[in-house]
Amino acid sequence: MARNRIADIVAGGRVLVSDGAWGTFLQKKGLQPGDCPELWCIDRPADVADVARSYIEAGADMIETDSFGGTRIKLADYGLADRAAEINEAAARISREAAGPDRLVIASVGPTGRMLMLGDVSEAEVFGAFAEQAVALHRGGADALCIETMTAADEAALAVRAARESTSAEVICTFTFDRIASGEYRTMMGLSPVDAARAALDAGAHIVGTNCGNGIAGMIDIVRGMRAAFPGVPILVHANAGLPTIVNGANTWPEGPADMAGRIAELVEAGAGIVGGCCGTTPDHIRAIRKAVDAINARRSA
Predict the structure, then answer these.
(1) Number of domains into which the chain is organized
(2) Residue 183 lies inside a defined structural domain of this protein
């Protein structure tokens, strides 16, 4: 597959497959609580590359990067703020090499962990941190920037604007929602799926969507709402492998590859154009999703 723009591919009717979890994968490789995952791009690049290659081999059209907490604001928690550019460029380079010439790299950009509304940090500081990260990821070879796990409209908008104004990369913005007592979905800061998508699009995002927080069944209603409000906008979904339970002190994820793959057609029918996994998903999940997506694409092209 040529590296065309993602939004153009989806607009042409092709459903794309993204990758699965990175954090839980790195934990299996030995990442310990309190470690900086992003520093592995410098100290343990072979392990990071193995994660990326595993998803490419499973059939992903695109892979993320080990850069979720890569803003200088977040890296300051580990005393690594001054290495933000170095770490992010390395993260993108690793995934770029694993992706090869034909697959896409959608570099991960997560929240800063600070609250603008509480005055923990200024808008200028947040914008600057996201811009620095975006430039380094794009320089390292990222085709798109996947601003993800957002809950607040102001932080998401700053991240999107920083990426748009600092690079020529496509910009994806996804939010995390929880189901509230009324049965509706809201972010931690109270945003509905439609309001969240609107904030990202108004800031300049090319693609919107949802990640984490829900298994694949919960994503269907979220996507359906976004699609009804924004008919022509590509929607990306990175679903968890269900909601975890703790067994013998460790998280156990209830949805296996067949469980997730079995809901892909319904998710695509709701409006998703790009599907992949978040926490608890593995290359086996992506392999099963690839098979389900291939069947959908074959029917569409028949």
Answers:
(1) 1
(2) yes
Structure tokens at 258: 């067949």
pLDDT tens digits for range 165-180 = 999 999 999 999 999 9
Within a domain: 1: no
- Over the range 181-211, which residues count as b (16 or more CB within 10 Å of their CB) and which as e? eeeebbbebebbbeebbbbbbebebbbbbbb
Q: Which of 20, 29, 18 is nearest to 241 (CA)?
A: 20
Other Cβ atoms within 10 Å of 229 Cβ, number = 15
246 band by pLDDT with thresholds 50, 70 and 90: confident
Instruction: Please answer whether residues 66 and 43 qualify as being in contact, where contact means their C-beta atoms are separated by less than 8 angstroms.
Output: no
From residue 50, how far is each of 45, 54, 234 by CA, in Å? Answer: 9, 6, 29
pTM of the model: 0.96
Rounded Cα–Cα distance for residues 199 and 114 (Å): 19
CATH of the domain at 291: 3.20.20.330
Helix (H, G, I), strand (E, B) or coil at 212: coil
Contacts of residue 25, defined as CB under 8 A and 6 or more positions apart, other chains included, come to 51, 54, 282
Tokens of residue 300, six digits: 């569409």
